[in-house]
């Protein structure tokens, strides 16, 4: 019934599309879109492979962005002047104050180097185990946030405060001989040093914090979730790896990630069902 013919006045027969076939195609398209939007149970090995390949690709692209040193330093001077105009240019004071407390700044160096990855992976594992119905959508927020950040690295190269000549910032990793930054010390050649805007330390930590706050069942976990991005903000400034406004850039990228998921699923990821409904299997009788 997909096609019918019509006889014209000349006696010729020509094919015409059946309305039923068109309706069927539209229905199939809607069903396909509905299936794509329906949360599914995540598969462990696929997720491990996906996250590994995605982070490798992100690192590869980020580091492949040309290190536009002149433009990065010029943008850093402009951003620093803007913050001074706004009255929020306190990064240098924070950097010097925290650096005077050795145990504190050394701890922040290691915080910067490790928790960015450890906590993010921990939240993904927690989602996978406890909230499988929300896992894919929440993971999509993280992926979309990270993807749009790559545009920022390319379009707006920015030197971190510790690399600004005459800025009087302290590179705490070099001074205290720790490995708190991939862009300092012996590891600096492995990372693009002029990709400070936006700050994915803030983008990822705020993603973690909001996810924990929205889904954790105990109050103390919710509080810790909110404190994590705040602590991260202090760390990235105290170690002179970012300006305050880099953090704003990370927040904007995260907002984009949530917008993508809101458009795709029709709701925020935390409003999706916690568990995936089992798929009913029907057998046709002959």
TrEMBL record:
Q: Which domain of life is it from?
A: Bacteria
Q: Does the keyword Transmembrane apply?
A: yes
Predominant localisation class: membrane
Q: Where is this region: Disordered?
A: 1-26
> What range(s) does the Inositolphosphotransferase Aur1/Ipt1 domain occupy?
78-259
**Which intervals of the chain form a coiled coil?**
none
| Keywords in alphabetical order | Membrane, Transmembrane, Transmembrane helix
Cellular location(s): Membrane
Topology in membrane: Multi-pass membrane protein
Mind telling me what this protein is named? Inositol phosphorylceramide synthase
Organism, as annotated: Streptomyces longispororuber
């Amino acid at each position: 019934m997909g096609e019918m013919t019509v006889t014209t006045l000349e006696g010729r027969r020509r094919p015409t599309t059946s309305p039923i076939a068109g309706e069927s195609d539209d229905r199939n398209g809607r069903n396909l879109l509905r299936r794509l939007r329906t949360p599914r149970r995540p598969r462990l090995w696929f997720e491990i492979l996906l996250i590994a390949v995605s982070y490798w690709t992100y690192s590869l692209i980020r580091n492949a962005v040309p290190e536009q040193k002149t433009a990065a330093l010029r943008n850093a001077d402009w951003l620093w002047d803007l913050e001074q105009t706004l009255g929020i240019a306190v990064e240098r004071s924070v950097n010097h104050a925290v650096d005077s407390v050795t145990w504190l700044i050394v701890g922040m160096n290691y915080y910067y180097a490790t928790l960015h990855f450890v906590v993010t992976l921990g939240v993904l594992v927690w989602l996978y185990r406890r909230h499988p119905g929300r896992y894919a959508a929440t993971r999509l927020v993280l992926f979309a946030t990270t993807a749009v950040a790559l545009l920022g690295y390319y379009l707006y190269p920015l030197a971190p405060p510790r690399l600004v000549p005459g800025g009087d910032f302290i590179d705490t990793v070099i001074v205290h001989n720790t490995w708190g930054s991939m862009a300092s010390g012996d590891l600096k050649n492995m990372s693009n040093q002029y990709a400070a805007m936006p700050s994915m330390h803030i983008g990822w930590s705020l993603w973690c914090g909001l996810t924990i706050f929205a889904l954790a069942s105990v109050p103390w976990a919710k509080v810790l979730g909110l404190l994590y991005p705040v602590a991260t903000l202090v760390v990235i400034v105290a170690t002179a790896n970012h300006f305050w406004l880099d953090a704003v850039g990370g927040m904007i990228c995260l907002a984009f990630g949530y917008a993508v998921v809101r458009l795709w699923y029709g709701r925020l990821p935390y409003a999706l069902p916690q568990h995936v409904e089992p798929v009913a299997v029907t057998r046709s009788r002959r």
